[in-house]
Amino acid sequence: MGNYAIAIHGGAGRLMTGSLTPEQEKAYHETLTEALQAGYTILTNDGSAVDAVEAAVRVLEDSPLFNAGKGSVFNCEGKNEMDAAIMNGKNLKAGAIAAVHTVRNPVSCAKAVMEKSTHVLLAGDGAEKFAKECGIEMVDPSYFYDEERHQQWLATKDKPGASWAGDIYLTGSTTPEKKLGTVGCVALDSAGNLAAATSTGGINNKKFGRVGDSPLIGAGTYADNKTCAVSCTGEGEYFIRQAIAYDVSALMEYKGFTVAQAATEGIKKVAQLGGEGGLIAIDNQGTISIPFNTSSMFRGWINNQGEKFTGIFR
Hints:
The protein is α+β, with helices and mostly antiparallel strands. It contains eight helices and 15 strands. 31% of the residues lie in helices and 26% in strands. The strands form three sheets. The chain has an eight-stranded mixed beta sheet. It has a four-stranded antiparallel beta sheet with strand order 10-11-12-13, with helices on one face.
């Protein structure tokens, strides 16, 4: 086996064992496996970690099962508003977009920002104009409409302060939402390069223009060949306030932590502020860590021995 590996997530939340039907569980495992395989195929053919994480995230964005791309939740104005980021650990180049409405695959637009501009983060109309100039596939906003997501928004839109990230309610609700979550991928390629990507529809019923941790380099997404690649999921505001994705890398670089120690410490810091969520991390040897402080996290990996796993519950 080559020393390459990949891990993905589809969001952390409060799902309990038995809360999904066997058919729903099967659908999630199949989509997670498809995403893993899309990225792993690139790695096995000596492709780049950057291309692998993009490919994996695109599969998750194209599925209505996850809160990214096609499955994005609705904001307080009843619109789907998406963010994404990607980072190359080889040269620390990064690209991100925020608050877009018509980009079919936000992760690919983020990659274009990284590779075809001198900027890191583009937002709103400017990001969409850039996407069109780069030939990124654009769609009518109706493409993102999902009836289940719409009903979830209708159930909360008139409740002051009611919103949730993934399937974690933030305020003003009593019933946990079941099946949503930011998506992400981290990978190590055969050349020893790391990459990370994250994509999200944000928080259901979020305030117009709200941007979470996913497109913020160092908060929800980070990669550095010297240490690790990280993609986060959960209550984004807590990850932003502690720059969790970068903090995992810094703990490895400056304190000599292993990737498991650093990743676990990152989630511990989120919890200390009262936040919930998880992250996926991979170091430059292909070691994978997936800590989370919730009852569930959609996740999967293929390690550097070729062993495969997908999971939902703790």
